[in-house]
Give the backbone structure.
Amino acid sequence: MADYDLIIAGGTVVTATDTMRADVGVRGGKIVALADRLTGATKTIDASGLLVMPGGIDSHVHISQNPEGAARMADDFISGTRSALAGGNTTLLPFALQPRGASLRDVVTKYHAEADGKALCDYGFHLIITDPSPSVLGQELPALIEDGYTSFKVFMTYDDMVLNDRQLLEVFDCARSTGALVMVHAEGYDSIKFMTERLERQGKTHPYYHAVSRPELVEREATHRAISHGELIDVPIMIVHISGREAMEQVRWAQQRGLKVYGETCPQYIALTADDLKGLNMDETGAKYVCSPPPRDAASWDAIWEGIRSGVFQTFSSDHCPFIYEGPGGKLSPQARTSFKWVPNGIPGVETRLQILYSKGVGEGRITVNEFVALTSTNHAKMYGMYPQKGSIGVGFDADIVLWDPNRREVIRQEIMHGGSDYTPYEGMAVTGWPVMTILRGQVVAEDGRVTAPAGSGQFLKRARSPYAVPKGA
Ligand code: URP
Ligand code: ZN
Ligand code: ZN
């Protein structure tokens, strides 16, 4: 009998801390050996010339998140996870969204039904709390946290999701007592509403005005408010999808004061600008780039890099939230053509996250390859209670691996994407560095643009509490 099911031979293993020439031995879906040279496997993959890195973990994706009355998402668990694997990811954390009035437990049960038998990669669920009633905060949420849904997101904007300050404080207090990690969408509801109505009165309804309706200071104000609420309750918080200098500086300020405030940023904030929302000469193609917070400007890219390099941001996620551009329920519905406020918010990105960060970050000398691994995999596993099962290459970890060609030049194009949307916002972007093989628990699941994993091969992850949250009972 062979010693290993699989040996990945001849590659350069990269973790968040080390870079080494080593073979990787896999048995029973786990990494069982790392050595200069290994022999005796059922299957050997030649990784010479390639980087051997932990599979990407994308801790912020929206898949099959379809509340009644909203535009239908372009990805279900099959297409979303297929796209993830093709992009070198092995684990996703999508959101089970609580519509107001709904039982959180029912929401989670229904979301499992969406994922069961479909997901091609491993996955856990965050929760989205829109209705923090006494029974939700008193019973349902604590029970779900105990069951492995150990993080949840709250929104400071959007009509059907916004929590007021009192509700935010109640929810933060619940996170404190249960040991959950809170993720905050920080944009100020009233300011956006005011700006939107004013712009509409002025006839400024083109998708570009989406960006004008929610300027950086609206994000800065909400970020500061969330930080203050977190400080009052003495609970750690994660500010997600930070778009530019203003919010980044708020998080840095909080961190410098010793507060447990964490930060996430995304590819759209180093690769797109508000000008993209103008489309081709203020035509409707600008709708393709409508997401919240909106992309800013090239100076904001520099601020985001400053935050990445100085450790303000722990995670680099896609905020994959795909809609189709043309066709029923897409970005260009008849209603959406009447005002930017009806264009569904969100863009696809799970398949291009790694390439964009690698190319602009490692390729252009802004970050090391080890920082790349930390930002795209290891820190997600640590932040959201999946470490040391996921997030690194070492004995005992799941054999979730991406083989990465650091020299491969590609142009991002919709025709080579694997998701359910009909466009990529990064069309035409040239990148250097590309995933050539993805391995999930020791099985090759994607190779050179072909995804081979059968539907349902992904496993649900019951997550531990985040070590970054308040320990339960503290
Ligand atoms: O526009 C975005 N980002 N849509 C996804 C929902 C969210 O706020 O993350
Ligand atoms: Zn959000
Ligand atoms: Zn999101």
